[in-house]
Amino acid sequence: MGKGFFNVPIAVNEPVKSYAPGSPEREEVLKAYKDMYNNKINVPMYINGKDVETGNTRTMSPPHDHQHSVGTYHVAEKSHIEDAISTALEARKLWSQMPWEQRTGIFLKAAELIAGPYRAKINAATMIAQSKNIYQAEIDAACELIDFLRFNVQFMSDIYMEQPESTSDAWNRIEYRPLEGFTYAVTPFNFTAIAGNLPACMALMGNVVVWKPSDSQIYSAKVIMDVFKEAGVPAGVINVVFGDPVMITDTVLNSPDFSGLHFTGSTNIFKSLWKQIGNNIHKYKTYPRIVGETGGKDFIVAHKTANAKQVATAIVRGAFEFQGQKCSAASRAYVPSNLWDDVKKLVIEDVKSFKMGSPEDMSNFITAVIHEGSFDKLAKYIDNAKADTDAEIIVGGNYDKSKGYFIEPTVIVTTNPKYTTMCTELFGPVITIYVYNEDEYSETLKLVDETSEYALTGAILSNCRYAIQEATNALQNSAGNFYINDKPTGAVVGQQPFGGARASGTNDKAGSAQNLLRWVSPRMIKETFVTPVDYRYPFLGE
Ligand code: NAD
Questions:
Q1: Please, what's the b/e burial string for 57-85 (b: 16 or more CB within 10 A of its CB; e: otherwise)?
Q2: How many whole angstroms separate alpha carbon 494 and alpha carbon 184?
Q3: Class of the CATH domain delimited by 298-484
Q4: Active-site amino acid positions
Q5: Is the CB of 249 under 6 A from ligand 1?
Q6: What secondary structure does DSSP assign to 134-153, as a single string?
Q7: What is the CATH number of domain 24-294+505-525?
């Protein structure tokens, strides 16, 4: 920026539309859904600004109707990944020099395209690809992605304004250089917003990107890429590749120019990538940045003073929205004995009132889980709970994959606080509840802290301030996002920066300046106005 200190627009969260019967947005999204559902598309990869078809294709099917095809996508050979890398490095020459206000213009335009002309399309794609009901699609694919794009610009501007002190004879300034080399974004199936944000936020900071979306999210990833293209992301800056994650990752991590991994997904995959980067460390020209937001075993703790209806609602919404496939979803709850009868009755009533089926029928609160692997895993845990003497299913417990991967929202109650489903991330519509002696609150908090390897989200519900204080202290390291008298899901960009520690990730807080700082390498520039001409300092005088 050579000719002005420009102010960026103040970022505001995109309002969530209601999709109530009769609303124009409902008609529009249903029309888009039908059009997309009944036509087949061909999804090429996107490398160096060109559509790349390899002829080696895979079918895309909605999780709620797995025999139905909505199209195919093309998968990469090793040579395509090599092309994506060399293309990105070539594009870097211009992109890394582009003034920030030009980059800003592109990504703010992307936000407005999603808010307007692409809104119905990106929501419908997310309903089809990831089986989200319209509300879940709207808060993710439209609103959260728009928020990321808008707030990232504001965070970038805040970072750039962070400058050192100067004196009258020397001017000190910091420039926030993009990383030297190319970056790698690996994204999960469960949030279209995360899929868009991971490559976009690195590109906004001046980096070039190879992006590998999840196989289960390609239909909505295609819409993201269409938005980026229309917004004006230049050729080679964000390259999208599909296919075998091991081959793609091996090729990327073998490049000496690899400079950063932005990963969101499961813990074990992230640990294996970290290890691979460590094993290759001697190959790289720079120490790669590693950011990973990973799994969770998110908790709700109710104190004996809590309101039973509020506890039941937190459990039901926290555990079952989007079939429990949010990294923040509540999957273990600790309910005091004095509240249990009421909470149990209310939870069962609510769960029995859910309707389950295709997201096209907007009265369905629950739709399908993402794929057969997830379905089979969940069914196994449910079967085991039916057989185990220390577990009881109080509602749900049925499943059916004849048409789509439907798992009934299921509540397990266990007498064993370390029962397998209290510790393991299942990533589905299953919550396990442990009923504790109402007078053993402190012991229970200790149990919550020690039960799982994760530390992503958690919630305390209580009407006693001392109990809230005690939980806030005792659970200090048990969650990166901690909620008081609320469910543990629903973080909003700019309001609740998101991420957890322990096995849940590097806690670089998506939706904050802290995350963007990982994608720059500051250069300090000191400019001296009157340059010394004599090495002798005054103290050397006779
Ligand atoms: P996943 O780990 O199966 O896949 C994530 C990405 O990694 C995908 O693109 C996948 O293709 C890729 N991948 C898979 N195997 C790989 C390999 N061997 N090498 C390189 N890449 C590989 O995760 P998912 O099922 O898509 O998403 C669910 C997981 O993501 C859950 O564990 C959830 O908790 C986590 N998640 C965390 C956050 C967070 O902010 N902490 C947010 C969303 C999802």
A1: beebbbbbbbeeebbbbbbbeeebbebbb
A2: 24
A3: alpha beta
A4: 293, 327
A5: yes
A6: HHHHIIIIIIIHHHHHHHHH
A7: 3.40.605.10
Q: Which atom of ligand 1 is nearest to the CA of 504?
A: 41
3-state secondary structure of 256: coil
What are the distances in angstroms from CA 193 to CA 142, 148, 198, 247?
Answer: 8, 8, 9, 25
Task: Please choose, from the candidates 372, 408, 370, the residue with its C-alpha nearest in 3D space to the C-alpha of residue 128.
Answer: 370
DSSP for 491-521 reads --TTTS-B--EETTB----BTSHHHHHTTEE
Question: 374, 405 in Cβ contact below 8 A?
Answer: yes
Pocket test residue of 140, 218, 258, 269 for ligand 1, highest count of atoms within 8 A of CB: 269
pLDDT tens across 197-253, in order? 999 999 999 999 999 999 999 999 999 999 999 999 999 999 999 999 999 999 999
Cα–Cα distances in angstroms (integers) from residue 352 to residues 210, 273, 315, 343, 355, in the given order: 45, 42, 14, 14, 8
Please tell me if the domain spanning 24-294+505-525 has the same topology as the one spanning 298-484: no
Indicate whether residue 339 lines ligand 1 (CB < 6 A): no
297 lines ligand 1 (CB under 6 A): no
In angstroms, what is the span from residue 97 Cα to ligand 1's centroid? 32
Judge whether 347 and 411 are in contact, CB under 8 Å.
yes
Domains in the chain: boundaries: 24-294+505-525, 298-484
Separation between Cα atoms, residue 197 and residue 204, nearest integer Å: 10
This prediction has a pTM of 0.98
Q: How many angstroms separate the CA atoms of 219 and 192, rounded?
A: 10
pLDDT at 148: 98
Per the CB < 8 A criterion, the answer to whether 421 and 383 are in contact is no
For residue 153, give the nearest of 96, 193, 201 by alpha carbon. Answer: 201
Per the CB < 8 A criterion, the answer to whether 418 and 288 are in contact is no
Q: How far is CA 122 from the centre of its chain?
A: 16
Backbone torsions φ then ψ of 105, nearest 5 degrees: -55, -40
Q: What is the pLDDT of residue 319?
A: 98
Residue 396 to residue 429: CA distance in whole angstroms: 10
Determine the Cα–Cα distance for residues 540 and 137; give it in Å rounded to an integer: 72
Phi (first) and psi of residue 238, to 5 degrees:
-125, 115
pLDDT at 1 over 70: no
Over residues 135-177, the pLDDT tens digits come to 999 999 999 999 999 999 999 999 999 999 999 999 999 999 9
d(CA 414, CA 172): 61
For residue 185, what are the β-bridge partners?
Answer: 211, 262
